[in-house]
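EI: anyone free to look at a 595-residue chain?
SC: sure, send it
EI:
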Amino acid sequence: MRSFVLSIWCVLSTVEAVVGAPGPAFPALNLGRGSPGIEKLQTRLDQAVGDVLSHGKVPGGSWDSSTTSFALQVTSATETIWSSYHSASKQGSDTPHVVTGDSFFRIASISKTFTVYALLLEQLNLDEPVTKWLPELKVPQTEDDVAIDWNSISLRALASHQAGIYRDSSGPCFLWREVLGLQPNWRDELEQHGFPRSLVTIRLDLLRTARHAARVFLPNTQATYSNAGFSLLGAVLESAGGKPYNAIINSSILQPLQMQKTTARKPDDSEGVIPAYHNDWYKPFDADTATAGLYSTPNDLAIYLRSMLYPATLLPQARLNAWMKPATWTSSGSTTAYGLSWEIYRTTSLTPDQRPIDLVTKGGLLNGYPSLIVLIPEFQLALVILIAGAPEVLDLLRRSIIAALVPVADELLREEASKRYTGCYTLPASMDDTTASKSSASSIELAVDNQGPGLRITSWISLGTDFLTTYARLQGAPASKRPDGWQVRLLPSDPVMSTSTTEIWRAVLLPSPLPEHDQKQAPVLWDDYYATDVDDLSYAGRSLGEFRITINEKGQAVKIYSVGLRTLLLSSQCNPAEHVHADTGKEKASWKSEL
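SC: here you go
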């Protein structure tokens, strides 16, 4: 008797809502400037920017486009597919700079992603304590001591804001007495403990401040944003690499990617976008460069982000994938998380099937320089927003652009998938028969709709049996009060496992969306707790949920192979209902006895 492994999926008995499934909904489009539908995407993005320029509102009124410049780019894995630039008429230079893809901006905390990228590329063990590389931080502990126990803080905790340490390693300490009313001897004592008078300017001050700072939380208790943690990671890179931070970034990232306009040194003023009012264009960061000190351009950042889209350029794909994942929840909101330098936002409001879309982002903010980069793994797209001017404009732009980008990208994906896969696939005719007999008839029918991710299996016949229902029941689908209470869908598997001619897909069982009038009901506790697995049913050692789709030279699906059932089906015209036995009870009983 053949072996059979069954995993009962009971969640469907209580969950009746649109929920997410593991992995992307479709294979990502490799969009280029000549791709079908690209003009629609570009037009929608142009409209979004136009709305911000003409109707943009910020708290307190409209924003002043005459004093705020910006640069925007959307890139696929291969090239920038859209850009938009706005040059303020009033700038901080005698001759206003015309913004282009090569204009310099300060990128503030986006610098943190370079620091973590370098840690990964230098292959440092992120789970080792920071004191391995910075032994100066070893501080004797006492029973009631509130000093930070640096021995218990890993590089990973620093990179994900879980170290429980202070926010900034520098500050205007010379104002403490005046602002806080400190007595002179208190101020002197603080300075004796190593707190600098102004910005941290040398590594010694950075480490001295860390040694004598009080903890905020015990490590890994909860997340709290810390610029200081990334300054220390910069020092770790220097200790491990034996050279300055700037040199490490240059050799590990900038040179391999040919990013010639990203630097820690201030560019010539004529190449930069300098706001007309108070700004940090000239501000030195020195030992804090690893947290917020870099300058870059839209074109360079687009190259940078492309290295993180599939296929990975610098890191092994598996390690890059891990870097894009959450490390901990933030302390506010149920859809936001910190990654290793990332701020990750998950939303279900951007697609018609309300599936979760992850936006892997990093924002930055210096005086006059708000900035944001966004990776959208679902679509293999990335966004750059660089601003010289009002910080409020960043929120307007990111909302408008993402709200335009994701729905259109999803629409293009569905249109492409519909052309590529939709249809019926049946057993090929035998050598001596023109049609397969009903006793051996097998077929599968695929469709693309807006009710869920991936390819919906609308009919699945195996040896004349309604195997779609059989598969759903084996997965634990309940006898729903609604006849359409569940659906089986195919989702693309890891692209590394696929080739240009053969794609690997896996089946998942999902609840069907509620009727629109039921979706407004108040949620019940645990109704939104949902975990979907793949590849949890096997027959004779092969996955019942694995399918391999063959693509021809025209980009059309022509074959589908069911790995578990060992059945090869060819694209054809068919009526699946004709392939089902009139008496299916005997066939189902046969299946059950064999299993």
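EI: The mean pLDDT is 84.
SC: 👍
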